[in-house]
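This part of the workshop introduces the protein records we will be handling. Each record describes a single protein and holds just a pair of labelled lines. Instead of coordinates, the fold is spelled out as a row of discrete tokens. To make this concrete, we reproduce a full record directly below:
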Amino acid sequence: AIEDNLSQEPLKPSRHRKLLAGLEPPWDQLRPVWQLRVEPHRIFYDVDPETRQVLIQAVRLKGRRRTEEIL
């Protein structure tokens, strides 16, 4: 599911993929952070605009917690 969702248009918002504006993740952030929903997990990633390479930064179990709480 991850490869299917991120291989074609990783920077296009969809039902399961969104840009997380204003989020401060626990890793060094150079580019905007995106979230992919693959129940019951959340995959946090960014994309190198020059190479279009997807960099997965974290995979977390979501549960009933808010996104800010699981990072």
About this structure: The chain has two helices and four strands. The beta strands are 17-19, 34-38, 41-48, 53-61. The mean pLDDT is 90. Helices lie at 2-6, 67-70.
